[in-house]
Task: structure prediction
Amino acid sequence: MKITYSIPREGAPVWMENLALLKDAPHPQQGYAFIDYILRPEITAKNSNYVGSPNGNKDATKLIDTQLRENPAQHPTKEVMDTLYPLETPPLRLERVRTRVWTRVKTGT
Result:
């Protein structure tokens, strides 16, 4: 089954990824070195091309594959970005329903 992503004109949740170290990480210097490496534009672009998703590194964006960079679902216009909103943590009962529905979508049942 192929699942694709599109943004409806009414808007959709926005998401972002973060790199962070735990407060009590045993080797913080190595963690920071890894984050510095991952954020290098050429490395970030390689990751984007491999997983097929956008990134937040402006210098890396010009290095990603044209097909990915020009995909409006991956790099929406400002007008579309203005319709996006952050998700709030749902009540546990609703989260369970959402998980069940998504599982049914993925399994086709």
Observations:
- Helices lie at 28-38, 41-51, 58-61, 66-69, 78-81, 92-107.
